[in-house]
Design brief:
alpha/beta; 5-stranded parallel beta sheet; 5 strands
């Protein structure tokens, strides 16, 4: 099975940097590979009034996410950058947003980092674990 279309979750953490490095390595070997580098802006569940008050903070979070993705692509080799798109998604649950995106866009592989949580926290709070458990396609978890 060719791995030509990769969804790479990125949040600036060490784990996500490792995920990007692994995805870039795949793209270096497979010149047909395309990376979608995705940052999910986490937003709380709010009613309309709360959302109006939260809007300026959300705008700042979106801007920070765009800067984060731009800095990440600056680290990639030129031939990989040419085959990379950045996506910024907002949602209340990053794992759910990544899974929804994977379903909608027909990726061959999801690449996520692991934050190094262990024990109970790993299974209840880990985005990588939730993506791994909920994905219909292969998931590569970078440590």
């Amino acid at each position: 099975m060719p791995v030509d279309k990769l969804l790479v979750a990125y949040d600036g953490s060490d784990g996500s940097r490792h995920a990007l490095e692994m995805a870039a390595s795949i793209a270096q070997v497979n010149k047909n590979a395309h990376l979608d580098l995705v940052y999910v802006v986490p937003i709380p569940l709010l009613n309309a009034d709360q959302m109006a008050a939260f809007q300026s903070i959300l705008d700042m979070m979106v801007s920070d996410g765009e800067d984060l993705l731009a800095a990440a692509t600056d680290e990639l080799a030129d031939d990989v950058v040419e085959r990379t798109d950045t996506l910024l998604v907002t949602g209340t649950n990053p794992a759910s947003e990544l899974l929804r995106l994977a379903e909608q866009r027909g990726y061959d592989l999801i690449v996520v980092g692991n934050r190094g949580l262990s024990g109970f926290k790993e299974y209840t709070g880990s985005v990588s674990h939730k993506v791994l458990a909920g994905s219909k396609i292969p998931v590569l978890v970078a440590k």
